[in-house]
Amino acid sequence: MAEPTTYVFDFDSTLVRIETLEALADIALAGAPDAAAIRAEVAALTDQAMAGDLPFGEALRRRLTLLPLTRDHVAELAARILDEGTPSVRRNLRFFRENADRIVILSGGFREIIAPLAAHLHVPPERVLCNDLIYDPQGRVTGVEAANPLSEAGGKPAVIRALGLPGPVVMIGDGWTDAEVRLAGAADRFHAFTEIVRRERVVAAADAEAPSMDEFLHAEGLAGRWSYPRARIRILLLENIHPAAVERLEEAGYTVESLKGALDEDALIEAVRGVHVLGVRSKTQVSARVLEAADRLMALAAFCIGTNQIDLDAAAARGVAVFNAPYSNTRSVVELAVGLTIALLRDVADKSAAMHRGEWNKSAAGSRELRGKTLGIVGYGAIGSQLSVLAEGLGMRVVFHDLTERLALGNARRMNSLDALLAESDVVSLHVDGRTENTALIGAAQLSRMKEGALLLNLSRGHVVDVGALAQALGAGRIGGAAVDVFPDEPATNADPFDSPLRGLRNVILTPHIGGSTEEAQEAIGAFAAERLLAYLNRGDTTFCVNLPNVQLAEVDGAHRILHIHRNQPGVLADLNRALAAAGLNILGQHLKTDERTGYVITDVDRDYDPEALQSLRSVAGTLRFRMLH
Ligand SMILES: NC(=O)C1=CN([C@@H]2O[C@H](COP(=O)(O)OP(=O)(O)OC[C@H]3O[C@@H](n4cnc5c(N)ncnc54)[C@H](O)[C@@H]3O)[C@@H](O)[C@H]2O)C=CC1
Ligand SMILES: O=C(O)C(=O)COP(=O)(O)O
């Protein structure tokens, strides 16, 4: 039997994102007047040594001489070293723990600092090869044990050779001293680790570059080999999605590109090729043509509430999971609707515009209180029902109309028809979703059924109102005012012009689709939608998915997870399980959930199997998508 491979990991800027001596300098020099200059000198010496321009032993001694280090400083850094773990190392804890007997940590750094992380990774102390600090009786650091080869240049290869490892040795690290292990023949392969720092000379001397641990594991055929390395998964976010989402997705190891504006269909078709995950807001139309061009797309997120801009059926037919953030901007829309209602009742927009022109027009004519007026809410979903509560709190009477049965909150009264609601309301506020059937839900006929001088608010979707008919009704004085936040044709970016028949009309407040645009809402949406995407990418969880069956799943532990999305037709599960049995797999757990068009099967199996054997799952009749998680 072949001898097992040993994986040798550097510590600073590899297992942790810091350079120990720089972090110790920060602690030891805190408050010192010359701190910045000394810190810069320490960093320069680290850089010279790691780039191979200065012998390691000399750099180490010179750095230690520069710093007034004590045992307390060392203990302070050791106490927080787990927090300094490199992001991709933290993601791959399982690899370290399960392979601890094949791992060596090799570092010119210090035992006290490395030991806590080594213990966390389950690497035994005898496999941690590093320097030992020497202290004087007052606890001041005076140097390192000189007999340890790691305190001198060429120490790393010497220490590895002395281990007399029988099998292949693979080295991974960011510095020149790591490259030297391979150059001196003490390692069979060297991966230049570049997640924290990238040094050209080190990369040039390496067999491979590892931008993250996922890439290293993938390249070495280790734990992550069944799933794609995360950094290669491309996420494209359009329409200025909040940085909270970008940060969360990047921290999880994915590659994120973020654009400010929306793209039209042709531009999106170009942009979406090779993209694994697409994030949009309300503007970007994700049509069947776009989905057809999206050769790699696994998931799509609407970083908003509405999903009418996405062809959900076409996405499901390709096994693309679609998510949204159904509650994160609800309150923002409701607050704006309340504010706009008061502004319309008091003619605030026109009075303010007149003041800006230098006109003073103090008058109560036509201005009314909100108290006691009837608010008609069309669409009593999350937004409509929340508005109902706030409006009642402000003394309004509330009536509502919805296509489906909804719980009437407070004293709100259900109306059996839209017409009945229109006839009774002083203010009509639209909160229906953007399904195609809602096009021109409010047209000339509906406007004519509203009370004389009543007000209309549309914060739902532009096509829900026939704006030409609304402009006419407003011009004729039939409707007393309107607040419109959404339009049939909205500019793709802030640089594009806006036009509408509603421009220039009296008591009409126009806002640029900002119902959900508050800092609170955007941050909450970013965090929520990113979390849904991660749950799907990392564990196959489809909770809140709007077009595939929802399955809530925990992280896989001690098993591989196989995800299979298929057309809902007879026999798929049986075929799938026959293929799994043929591959010799032991099923540890299985979930199946279907809706009328799609089935989603999640199978957890034993760890040991040949991924090639599973390719037959792709040919099971009805398969839409097949994915393996490690
Ligand atoms: N202006 C903005 O920035 C924002 C606009 N929106 C829009 O608001 C819409 C509603 O949001 P939510 O309340 O969260 O959605 P929701 O899905 O909870 O509620 C929509 C309700 O409208 C009802 N409905 C649909 N068509 C109807 C019709 N023809 N007549 C009567 N009822 C009808 C549905 O049965 C449902 O109860 C979103 O779909 C989105 O288009 C959402 C957030 C921000
Ligand atoms: O949440 C929604 O549906 C909205 O309409 C808000 O859209 P936006 O994210 O502002 O493009």
Automatic annotation (TrEMBL):
<dbReference type="Pfam" id="PF12710">
    <property type="entry name" value="HAD"/>
</dbReference>
<keyword id="KW-0028">Amino-acid biosynthesis</keyword>
<dbReference type="Pfam" id="PF02826">
    <property type="entry name" value="2-Hacid_dh_C"/>
</dbReference>
<dbReference type="InterPro" id="IPR029752">
    <property type="entry name" value="D-isomer_DH_CS1"/>
</dbReference>
<dbReference type="InterPro" id="IPR002912">
    <property type="entry name" value="ACT_dom"/>
</dbReference>
<comment type="function">
    <text>Catalyzes the reversible oxidation of 3-phospho-D-glycerate to 3-phosphonooxypyruvate, the first step of the phosphorylated L-serine biosynthesis pathway. Also catalyzes the reversible oxidation of 2-hydroxyglutarate to 2-oxoglutarate.</text>
</comment>
<feature type="domain" description="ACT">
    <location>
        <begin position="561"/>
        <end position="630"/>
    </location>
</feature>
<dbReference type="InterPro" id="IPR023214">
    <property type="entry name" value="HAD_sf"/>
</dbReference>
<dbReference type="Pfam" id="PF00389">
    <property type="entry name" value="2-Hacid_dh"/>
</dbReference>
<keyword id="KW-0718">Serine biosynthesis</keyword>
<protein>
    <recommendedName>
        <fullName>D-3-phosphoglycerate dehydrogenase</fullName>
        <ecNumber>1.1.1.399</ecNumber>
        <ecNumber>1.1.1.95</ecNumber>
    </recommendedName>
</protein>
<keyword id="KW-0560">Oxidoreductase</keyword>
<dbReference type="InterPro" id="IPR045865">
    <property type="entry name" value="ACT-like_dom_sf"/>
</dbReference>
<comment type="similarity">
    <text>Belongs to the D-isomer specific 2-hydroxyacid dehydrogenase family.</text>
</comment>
<dbReference type="InterPro" id="IPR006139">
    <property type="entry name" value="D-isomer_2_OHA_DH_cat_dom"/>
</dbReference>
<dbReference type="InterPro" id="IPR054480">
    <property type="entry name" value="AHAS_small-like_ACT"/>
</dbReference>
<dbReference type="InterPro" id="IPR036412">
    <property type="entry name" value="HAD-like_sf"/>
</dbReference>
<dbReference type="InterPro" id="IPR006140">
    <property type="entry name" value="D-isomer_DH_NAD-bd"/>
</dbReference>
<dbReference type="InterPro" id="IPR029753">
    <property type="entry name" value="D-isomer_DH_CS"/>
</dbReference>
<dbReference type="Pfam" id="PF22629">
    <property type="entry name" value="ACT_AHAS_ss"/>
</dbReference>
<dbReference type="InterPro" id="IPR036291">
    <property type="entry name" value="NAD(P)-bd_dom_sf"/>
</dbReference>
<comment type="pathway">
    <text>Amino-acid biosynthesis; L-serine biosynthesis; L-serine from 3-phospho-D-glycerate: step 1/3.</text>
</comment>
<dbReference type="InterPro" id="IPR050857">
    <property type="entry name" value="D-2-hydroxyacid_DH"/>
</dbReference>
<keyword id="KW-0520">NAD</keyword>
